[in-house]
User: Which sequence fits this backbone?
């Protein structure tokens, strides 16, 4: 158990809908990262928050947004969903902002039908 | 763009043998590397990391070797066990402190 908690584990929705994925980092970790994993793209970095502030952005679509709350949990919002958004979404956390020793949650499997 | 070993080869290993998983990276400015293990249905699990000022680091049954001259990283697993069957990813940290993951290597341990 990595100590990173993600909910829900599975999500099935329809095109055009909006969903929210939730992540609780390991106790004491200030950074939260979101990654998307699909069969053809591998693990793709989406966005990083550190202590409530956006730290870095990767290949995140404009339809996607995230935030980190004062209690350090984070949410990833995916809107106007398309079939191609179906993927595993992972949250990871680390103690610092410098992308070292990321610990990953077990992911949310999103299926857009 | 950045690329780290964008293939998913499969390595079949006899139980008890040593495994060597290779990873090529492209950015000579990368200063930190990390290996993850991902079992089916689970998230990536941290195995070991190494900074660019080192060429070798050992953990429990694992060793990471870094050759900056040829931009090559390897993970050695000693006495491979059935529980080692998984996909292994390397990742590099380059400009902007972002981690870039490779496509992974699948390891199958034969009894």
Assistant:
């Amino acid at each position: 158990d990595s100590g990173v908690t993600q909910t829900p584990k599975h999500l099935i929705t329809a095109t055009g809908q909006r969903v929210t994925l939730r992540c609780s980092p390991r106790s004491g970790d200030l950074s939260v990262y979101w990654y998307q994993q699909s069969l053809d793209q591998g693990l793709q970095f989406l966005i990083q928050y550190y202590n409530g502030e956006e730290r870095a952005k990767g290949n995140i679509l404009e339809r996607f947004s995230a935030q980190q709350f004062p209690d350090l949990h984070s949410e990833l919002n995916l809107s106007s969903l398309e079939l191609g958004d179906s993927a595993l979404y992972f949250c990871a956390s680390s103690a610092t902002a410098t992308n070292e020793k990321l610990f990953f949650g077990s992911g949310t499997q999103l299926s857009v039908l | 763009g950045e690329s780290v070993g964008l293939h998913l080869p499969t390595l079949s290993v006899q139980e008890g043998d040593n495994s060597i998983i290779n990873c090529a990276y492209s950015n000579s400015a990368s200063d930190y590397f990390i290996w993850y293990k991902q079992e089916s249905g689970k998230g990536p699990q941290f195995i070991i990391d190494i900074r660019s000022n080192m060429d070798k680091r050992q953990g429990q049954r694992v060793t990471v070797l870094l050759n900056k001259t040829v931009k090559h990283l390897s993970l050695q697993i000693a006495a491979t066990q059935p529980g080692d069957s998984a996909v292994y990813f390397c990742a590099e940290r380059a400009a902007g402190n972002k981690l870039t993951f490779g496509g992974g290597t699948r390891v199958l341990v034969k009894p």
Summary: Confidence is low (pLDDT under 50) at residues 1-6 of chain B. The longest strand of chain B covers residues 86-93. The beta strands of chain B are 10-14, 19-24, 32-38, 45-51, 56-58, 62-67, 72-77, 86-93, 99-101, 105-110.
